[in-house]
């Protein structure tokens, strides 16, 4: 007879703790595979909203092969022409980009209310968004990460920061 394995049930409310929210904004996303990974990461790490700024016509949020969780049913996804107009009021705009003045992720203190903006797979966050961002953040790696993985790493770090009690 097989031994039953007891596992503690993880409740969604216990994940990030504290006040505030995070949303994810994608500037000109082109690859549906990566967008599916982003939606899944957003659901896993409790992002409250996903903004797609000028997405490729090939992206159909309802049919993403890399989003088996059907995250769009649980995390609102909006598609907009101007990403900056959709950023939630009174939230810090955090551009995730490799630029000289960007703060390395291990040194970054995540704002209570943040909108993390990620650039397209084969480009950078637009200059207009970089100019208006409150923070510039980079993920220090040996080689470049893909979009979906970068979003997952940043959102995980935000949750870990809050678990450790390093809230602003």
Explain this structure:
It is a single chain. The protein has 168 residues and is of the alpha/beta class. The protein has a single domain, classed as Alpha/beta knot, CATH 3.40.1280.10. The chain is built from four helices and seven strands. It has helices at 32-44, 83-86, 127-132, 147-163; strands at 21-27, 49-53, 77-80, 92-96, 103-104, 113-118, 135-138. The protein has a seven-stranded parallel beta sheet. Strand 1 (21-27), helix 1 and strand 2 form a beta-alpha-beta unit. Helix 1 packs parallel to helix 4. The chain is globular. The N and C termini lie far apart (51 Å). The mean pLDDT is 90.
| Sheet with most strands | 7 strands, parallel
Q: SSE order, as H and E?
A: EHEEHEEEHEH
Structural domain count = 1
Q: Which runs of at least 5 residues are low in confidence (pLDDT < 50)?
A: none
CATH topology (level 3) name: Alpha/beta knot
CA(first)-CA(last) distance: 51 Å
Counting helices, strands and paired strands, the structural category is alpha/beta
- The percentage helix is 10-25%
């Amino acid at each position: 007879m097989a031994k039953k394995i007891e596992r503690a049930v993880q409740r969604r409310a216990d994940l990030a703790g504290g006040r505030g929210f995070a949303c994810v904004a994608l500037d000109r996303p082109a690859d549906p595979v990566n967008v599916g990974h982003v939606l899944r990461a957003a659901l896993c790490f409790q992002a409250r909203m996903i903004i797609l700024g000028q997405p490729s016509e090939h992206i159909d949020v309802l049919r993403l092969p890399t989003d088996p969780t059907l995250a769009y049913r649980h995390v609102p996804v909006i598609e907009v022409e101007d990403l900056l107009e959709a950023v939630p009021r009174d939230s810090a705009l955090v551009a995730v980009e490799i630029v000289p003045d960007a703060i390395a992720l291990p040194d970054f203190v995540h704002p209570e209310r943040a909108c993390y903006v990620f650039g397209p797979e084969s480009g950078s966050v637009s200059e207009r968004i970089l100019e208006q961002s409150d923070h510039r953040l980079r993920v220090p790696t040996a080689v470049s990460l893909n979009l979906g993985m970068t979003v997952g790493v940043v959102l995980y770090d935000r949750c870990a920061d809050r678990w450790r009690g390093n809230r602003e």
